[in-house]
Every structure is written in structure tokens, then in C-alpha cells.
Specification:
Layout lengths: L5 E3 L2 E2 L7 H34 L8 H12 L2 E3 L3 E2 L5 H15 L14 H15 L8 E3 H9 L9 H13 L15 E3 L2 H19 L5
């Protein structure tokens, strides 16, 4: 809701646990809840803005007013919900096809057509090779400077600089090829070339947290 021009694709899972009529009812309920949530948000923002504008000293609340107006201007596009059975490979492929169809929609994503410099593809291919090499550890973590050094060993990437590499890593992070938390100080120098391993670690952490949070009922 805070990101300008966001596009959200709701996905309903566990279809295999529901009857066909239940899927339709739950889909309708989810859509209704989302619509109500957006309407409530819009109403609350308008109410807060009116209160600030009607205060005795509105100039003292200018920063808050500007933030609220910025949030009010953020548009949110909700696409049709996709119901999937995660145990059915065909449903997973259907979801993948739906996502790709939306992503290629220039009305939803005006900047989808973007010509990347050849070096982007060259670095992407080189990183894939590094991630799949036998010397790569299972966790897929690599120091940013070490990654730059490895990439520079390729003849066509010998002149690759750190600043350009960082630009390319941002792009590869956005498309999900790797994970790079440049905004986190303790992780800015670490690149995760195996996102799947990171996801598995998150699952374990969440699972442990869930186990410890369970209290027996008396």
C-alpha cells in the first residue's frame, strides 16, 4: 500500500482441501475483504488529512500532512485472484503462466520493455555458472568483492567495476536470480547466489518459532 503504482496478484492455495463451491465462496469472500480494506484505508487517510488541515496550527503538522498525501496518491491495482492446488504441477504451471502474462502487460507495467546492455546478460550468465560450480558452497553466500574478483576473471568482464556490478546485482535481485540486502549494513557485502537455500533457512526459523510458541491447552 505504500509503494506507488503497486500491482498485487492474490493467490489462494489449498484448493485440494476444498469443494468446488467452497473455492468460489472463499474467492468471493477474499475479494470482498480486499475491497473493504482498501475502502477503509482511503477513508482513514481522508479523515486524518482533514483533521490536520482543520487544526489550529496546520503548519506544525506539515510533515505529517505531506506523508499522508503521499500515501493517498499511491495507487494499488488488485488483479483477479488465482486459486491453485499446490500439489498439482499443472496448477503451478497455470499460476506461472498467469504471472508472466500480467508481467508482460505494458498497461500494468509501462517499463516492462527495457533494453539491457549486453554486460547485464554476460554477468548474469557468469553468476549462474559460479552458483552451479562444484566449488560453490551449498549456502551460496559470497563476499561482494570476491564475486567481483571471480567475474573479472572472465575475459569479457575484465573491466567490470564495483559500481556497475552493484547496478547489475540490483537488477538480478529484482528478478529473483539472487538475493542482495544492500540496505542492511551487516549484509551489504554479502550476495546470496542460492536464494532457495535462504528460503529453506527461513522456513526452518519460522518452524522453530512456531514450535516454541505453542502452549498446551489445559
Amino acid at each position: 500500500m505504500r509503494v506507488p503504482n503497486s500491482v498485487v496478484l492474490p493467490v489462494g492455495t489449498h484448493v485440494d482441501c476444498c469443494q468446488e463451491q467452497e473455492v468460489a465462496e472463499k474467492t468471493h469472500d477474499i475479494v470482498a475483504r480486499i475491497t473493504a480494506m482498501l475502502a477503509e484505508r482511503k477513508s482513514n487517510l481522508a479523515h486524518f488529512i482533514d483533521n490536520l488541515e482543520g487544526s489550529e496550527e496546520p503548519k506544525f503538522y506539515m510533515d505529517q500532512w505531506e506523508r499522508l498525501k503521499e500515501m493517498e496518491s499511491c495507487t494499488l491495482t488488485i488483479l483477479n485472484l488465482v486459486a491453485v492446488n499446490c500439489t498439482d504441477h499443472c496448477d503451478i504451471k497455470k499460476l506461472e503462466a498467469t504471472i508472466l502474462e500480467h508481467v508482460k502487460n505494458e498497461e500494468l507495467f509501462p517499463e516492462v520493455v527495457r533494453v539491457l546492455p549486453p554486460v547485464y546478460r554476460q554477468v548474469e550468465a557468469a553468476i549462474v555458472d559460479i552458483a552451479q560450480s562444484e566449488e560453490m558452497a551449498d549456502h551460496g553466500m559470497m563476499d561482494l568483492q570476491h564475486l567481483l574478483s571471480k567475474l573479472s576473471q572472465h575475459k569479457h568482464l575484465a573491466s567490470l567495476g564495483r559500481e556497475l556490478l552493484q547496478d547489475i546485482l540490483r537488477y538480478l535481485h529484482r528478478i529473483g536470480l539472487l538475493v542482495w540486502y544492500e540496505e542492511i549494513k551487516h549484509l551489504e557485502s554479502t550476495v546470496f547466489l542460492q536464494p532457495t537455500f535462504l528460503i529453506s533457512m527461513f522456513k526452518v526459523s519460522v518452524g522453530i518459532g512456531t514450535i516454541f510458541s505453542v502452549e498446551p491447552k489445559l
